[in-house]
Amino acid sequence: MDQEGMLPDAFEAVCREHRPAALYAQPTMHNPTTAIMSIERRKAIAGIARKHGVAIFEDDIYSLLPTDLPPPLSAYAPELSWYVLGTAKSMAPVFKVAYVVAPSAEAARTRFWPGDRATYWMCAPQKGVCLACDRISRSRFPYLKTDA
């Protein structure tokens, strides 16, 4: 890692040597370093993932804190990416709202939704949900495209 987070050369080397199935990334406000990847770095990481067929799991939990951010890493390889954004840490714990953008509607149906029968659901306050939806729709979702 450097001041921008994950190094493309290191990711490329891992892909060649170990052939990973997935990459977990926090390109915005990486915990614990707070590194923010540049657009160029995000494009490089996405290109390497595409080249090697590596799924991307992007944890964008802190992206609602800073302003003037680059687009999510997932925007550069949407066909490989599972984008996750929760609001409890970046807005307020009471909101308890999270979003998942899958690589496709089919991926969401076959891989994500079967788990809904085995999870615990707790309703978040409606005003909190509305505030969270408004903030996210203005800041992060314009970059993410989905057919879901």
UniProtKB/TrEMBL annotation:
| Source domain of life | Bacteria
List the InterPro entries.
HTH_trans_reg/aminotransferase (IPR051446), PyrdxlP-dep_Trfase (IPR015424), PyrdxlP-dep_Trfase_major (IPR015421)
In Swiss-Prot or TrEMBL terms, this protein is called Aminotransferase class I/classII domain-containing protein
